[in-house]
Each structure stands twice: as C-alpha cells, then as structure tokens.
Amino acid sequence: MLFNGSPLDVGGPGSGESEIRRWIIENDLLEGVIALPDQLLYNTGIATYYWILTNRKDSERRGRAVLLNARDEWQKMRRSRGDKRKYVAPDQIAAVTETYRKAVAISRDPHHPWYARVRLLRNEEFAYRRVVIDRPLRARFELTEETVRRLTTEAPFRNVFGRETLAESLGPLTGSSWATRNKALGVLRAAVRNGGETWPTTAGFQNAVSRLLRVPDPDGEIQKNGREVEADPTLSESVDLPAHRDPEEFLRDEIRPRHPDAWIDPAKIRTGYEISLTHFFVAHINSDFDSLRRYARLETAKVTLSGDDNGGNGWRHLSIQDLHDVDSAAALPEAPEFRTAPMTLCRGGDLVGWPGNWRLLPPNFGEAVTSMFVLHPIEGRGRLLCEWLNSRPENPHSVRMTPRKLMDIQVPVDLLDEEIENCLEAVQESRRKIQAAASNTLPNVFSGNQTDVRRLRDEIRSAASEAGLVADLMRPVEDPVGRAEWTYPFHIASLARRYRISTHPAEQKDGLLKLGEGIARVLGILALSELIADQGGFTAALRGGQLRTGATFGTWTTIISRFADGLAAPRLPDLARICDVGGIRDALAAIKRLRNSTHHSHGVRATHEIEKDVETLEPHVISALTTANWLAANPWDWVERCEYLDESSYRLVGLTLRGSHPSWEPFDRLSTSPLRPNRIYVNGAGGNPVDLWPLAAVSLCSRCHTRELFLLNQCQDETLILRSLEEHELEITYPLPMLHE
C-alpha cells in the first residue's frame, strides 16, 4: 500500500489511527516500510511510503519489521508533469528490491553500502507510553465584589443566603485575602452567622465556596479534594516515553530535580504505536549521533493568560513574525487578551521556533510567552543545536511536528564542543548583521510620502541605480572568487581578480591554473615557515629538492604534505586544517592532476575542449578557495617601522597585504612587543605574530620602482631567490643555521 507520511504517526494513544497501527504490529502483519522520494506523483509533491503487509513472514523476520530509506533513489525528469518531477529508474528499482530482500543480512553488516539506510526493528520498538506529569494546584483565597455577586446570584448559594443580608455581612471583607482554605472559610462563616444567616456545613457546599474564592498562586496552599492532592490542569505535562522506559524512573531522574512535588497517575497512562520518521534518518556526516533530548530540555509548562486589565497579565508575546527581528522582550507587543490556548514561557538563552525556523534568543532577551516550541540547551550548546535544527531537510509545512518527534531528532555529537560553539557565534552574528543591513536597503519605492509623479519617477530611477551598486557589492558575498579578491592575502587575491576578468576560455583556464598554484604557494610558504621553526632554522634539507631548481606546483604540495604528516601543533592554529581528510590537499591534488593531463598537451586544442577543461577545473579551484577561507581571517601585515613608546608599548606602522588592489591598506596600531621592521607577519596562536622572513618580503622593485610582494621561488645554497607576480626577482642572502654537536 502506498501512503503519505500521516499513517506513520498521526494520532495519539487510544486514537483510531494508533489503534490500527497497534493491531497491525501486535498481530505481526507489518513486514516493512520503504521511504520513497518526493515529487513522484502527478498531483502532489509529498513524500510517500510503501507499506508491505503479510501474514506469511519468514522465520528471521517474525516479530520484526524492516524500514528502508530509498529517498535518494530517483532521477530527474527531463520535463515535469504537474507535480511529478522525479522518477525511479529500473536499475534503482532493482537495487531497492534487492536491498529489501536481503535487509536482515544487511542490517547486521556495517560494511554494506546500504547498511545506514536499513533498520530491522522489533515490534515492541514501535510502542510508546504517554504519561501525564501532574503537579499540585496551589492557591490563595480572595473575596472580591465579583465573588460577593456570585454568592448572592448563583446556585447553590442563592437558595441558602438572603441576597441583601449576605451582601451586608460580606461587604466589609471585600478585598480581603487569606493564605489557607480553612482560614478563608472560617472568616466568611463567622461574618455570615453574625449577620443572622446560617452557614451549611456539608463538604459539597464548603468545596463550592472555596473554588469560588481561590486564585492560582505558585506560592499558595496545596489544594486537596478529600485526601487526594488536586492537580493543576495548567501545569500538567504529557510526555511520550519508549515502552521499555519505566515511568517512575523517568519521574525520579528527569522531572523531580526540577519539580519535587510532581507525580504520575498510573490511571492516565496510555499506550500508543507509531513509526517514527527518526527511524529513517541517515547520517550524511561521519559523526556519532544521539537524540536531541540528551542535549536540550523541552519546556512543557504552560502559562494561561487571564486577559485582565493589563492585557495578558502583562506578558509580552513572541510570534513567528517577530522571532528574528526583535532582540528584547520589551520591544514585543503584549500577549493577546482572552487567549484560550495556554502559551509557553521563553527567556534569554532559550532556543525557540518551529521546524526549519529556529533562533537562539540573546542572553538579555528577558521573558515572553510564545506558541512555538521552547528548548533549554544543556551545557551551553545552543548555537550548534540552532544551526543543526535550521538545516533539517523536512518541509515545515508538510511535517506535523510533535514534541516527541522534535526530541527524537538526531544531532551530531562530535560537533558539540566549545570551539564549534564559538565559531557559530561569529557566523550567526554576521548573518544577523547582513539581514539587518539588507532590510534597510532598497525599500519599497511607494513606502515614502512622495506624491509628485515626476519626483517619484526620479526616485525609482535612483533606486534602479542603487540596485546595480548593491549587486556589485553583493558579488563578493555570493562568489567565492569575489571574496578571495577582496579579503585573501594579496598573492591569491590578485590571481583571483585575473581569473575573474578573463573572457577567453584559454585565459580562463590559465587563470584557474595560476590561481590554484597561488593557493598552493601561499599555503606552502606558511607550512614551510612552520617546518623551519620546528627544525630550528632553514636547514639544507629544507632548501633541497625542487627548491634548488625553482618551485613548482608539486613543490608546494610536497611541502604541504610534509607539514601535514609531521606537525601536530603549528604556531598558526588554522594551518592545522590542511591535515583534514578530504580537505584542501585533495582539492589541490585534483587541480594538479588536471594541470598535468591537459596543460602540456601536444598541438593546438579546440575552443570547446578548453571550455570543457574550464568546467572541470573550476569546481576544484572553488573548493580549494572555500576550504582555505580561514586565510581571510589571517592577514599578512608588512611592518614598515616599529616605534618605542614605553617598556610594554610599541607603535606599529605598515601595510596590510590583503585584497587585489596594488595600493595596500595602511595600518597604525599599538603592540605589547616589538616587531622587526621590513618584515611580514601573520597572527599566530594567542595573537603572537609569526615572522615569514625569509620566505616572503616586500621590497621596492628596481625595475618598476613600485613596492611588490615577493615569495620564495628558489634556493641556491645561502642565496634565496624570491619572485613577484610580475615575474620580478629579489635575491637575498640567508646563511644556513649553525650545526650543534
């Protein structure tokens, strides 16, 4: 049978849908469910699930069911037909069928390519129990004018008291408040009897009066119904637990540390069955995963708005429209009056949102109420959880998210650490700045007060010109080559610009190859400086090899590999990233292979062949640029002079060798330690500058009489030859280090 996602989990315990699933599973009729791609049907783009039911299971499948994720098995149609944009090819059908047939064996073989997409679950694993966590009703007791009116007009009181006599007796007490039920009833009873009325002593009458007087108060007296503690319906929490989890154990470990007076009523426990979408989860990164409930607590306590004269008790309302635009609860509107559905309290540091749309509230946000989910991150890992939840692929309009589904979401455990949290803080803050800047750029042309058509026409033309400027400014943000041109060290930035402005396929290919080699050269210079520091100097062994005849692409990739294989803690912490598997080294190796296979071809190549080379080469160069984007945060600074101010303060004046423009950006800043003039430095660990001499230098070229950046190209014993992008050379003498016996 082919269904959408609803029959998997719609309906709580005891509902018709849950009972149907229960009957199917408990009678061992469910053999398997296959998750298929979306956009397979003509009239809807929803994802579908293929249910397989049988009463003739193989012995190895009895008491179990197979869940197979085949969502990625599809081909794109050349032409859409309605909502149908995908189809499953015959070879994919055969692969899915064969995998399902061998699912039991595959589920036990971690090395099988389909292992992560096959689950073999026992029937009991589809069951869960819904328990209700109750907390006592606490209240104080008040006599108001409204209470007196109801005592004189409503049953059962109007048949007991005289209206005028009761009002006269209770009038002096109006506005009084009592902490306990007995105290309140005792005062009222005495006042009524003093007025000549009788006070019934039946339990039903006493309870009716106390319910009329009581006002919920979190610090008030615990209310009882006879000998049993009365539960507060506004504080009740429904929690879904796996069938094997003991409710009392859950109460002891998870609830009572926060609410010591909570309890579970066994009579309210209900058993349900569902096929959670979490069972179809496939990890696309090589990390251990665990459920969200291990790293965040779902806020289930509700706030009931009374709708009094202060609106919703003065609460501020955080809606989905304000989620990303407001940084303080004080800027939110008041909660709507007389809202029947309770709302959830949220504070600064909470994670608030819906599927695919989450935000970590600022620490000083304050308090507000919301109808969205509220999570309390554990151990300060809110930014990673926010980023991960916002990356979830489900369509928020097609997924009926429940608290249990939310807390079952799998999160990557290996990324939950302080370093990633700090990195994501910078990422998310920059993202918000971009959004804030964009919101004030190019507003609606009719949003102003202009009424004159001619002037309005001029404003629209001006907006069109500004739009062109914005497009130019956004190019570096959208294009990795543009970002490199603006922010990377000069050697890479200049080569990125040469590639960007090239038009002919041959120029583009040459520009890509030079840019790839430039990335390798800059990384090689940094890696070589670490090797020099590790070995105590620029030894003969480091100067040997290809550096004797002139550095090539292969020279720099060899140096990078030597660094990656030998050093664990470089002075430049970001440089350790080149050790990552599948990172910059793989991208550079791919560029080198393409260079060697096409750049030295015999004869003249046709234009379409060169265009094909460009298409093949560009993704690898872009990958190298994006993988080495940390270079933008580690600028190369050329110190022209260092001025002494006092024993712990120095003034540095020089140029930052960043961006493609030949006129480098000047800087003038203070330093706590002296630096040698006419040297290039890169910020290292703890802010300690790393000197790149003698591998990089800025010098006035004797041929063109302009300052140029020179990088090491060749070693001839104690003579080093550095070369600029203009193919100009600079020779310096750098003695070999003294050998220590």
UniProtKB/TrEMBL annotation:
DNA methylase adenine-specific domain ranges (all copies): 14-107
Catalysed reaction, written as an equation: a 2'-deoxyadenosine in DNA + S-adenosyl-L-methionine = an N(6)-methyl-2'-deoxyadenosine in DNA + S-adenosyl-L-homocysteine + H(+)
Region of interest (Disordered), residue spans: 217-243
Compositionally biased residues, Basic and acidic residues: 217-230
Coiled-coil ranges (or none): 413-440
GO molecular function, one term: DNA binding
Record key words, sorted: Coiled coil, Methyltransferase, Restriction system, S-adenosyl-L-methionine, Transferase
An individual GO BP term: methylation
Protein's recorded name: site-specific DNA-methyltransferase (adenine-specific)
Organism: Micromonospora globbae
